[in-house]
Model the fold of this input.
Amino acid sequence: MFIRKYISSDCEQLAELFYQTVHTVNAKDYSQKQLDVWATGNVDLCVWNKSFLEHNTFVAIEDNTIVGFGDIDNTGYLDRLFVHKDYQRQGIASALCNKLENGFVKITTHASITAKPFFLHRGYKLVKEQQVMRNGISLTNYVMEK
Done:
C-alpha cells in the first residue's frame, strides 16, 4: 500500500467507496434509514472535489485500487476518513491518520459509532455525544479531540 495526495480524477471513486463503506461497515451500528440519509449515493462531485482540493486530502492505494481516503482542513478538523469495505483492519486508516495528523497541535473529528473505538485507540478524547439530523432522521456521532 502507498499513500498519495488526492487528485480530482479520484473523486468519483471516493464517492463510491464512501457509499459502499457506510452501507456495509457502518450497518452494524446504524439502521437502514440512517444509512440511506448518511450516504444517499448522490454525492455532488463538484462540491466534494472542491472540498478535497481545499483540504489536505490523501488516498491509499493497493494493487492500483483506492482502498481508503481521508481529509483534514487547515483548522485541524479531520472531516472524512473511510476505508474500503474489503480492506478493513489492515492498518489503512492508521496510515492515513498518520499523514493527516502530521503538523497539527489539536485535531477534532466527528466520529461515527463505528469509528469511535478507532479514534479512542489513537488517543482521541471524547468531548460529547451528539445527534445530527439528516432529512428528519437522527444520527449519533461523537465530537472527539486529540
Q: What stands out?
A: The CA atoms of residues 51 and 73 lie 9 Å apart. Helices lie at 11-24, 32-38, 45-54, 92-101, 116-121. The beta strands are 2-5, 56-62, 65-72, 77-83, 108-112, 125-134, 137-145.
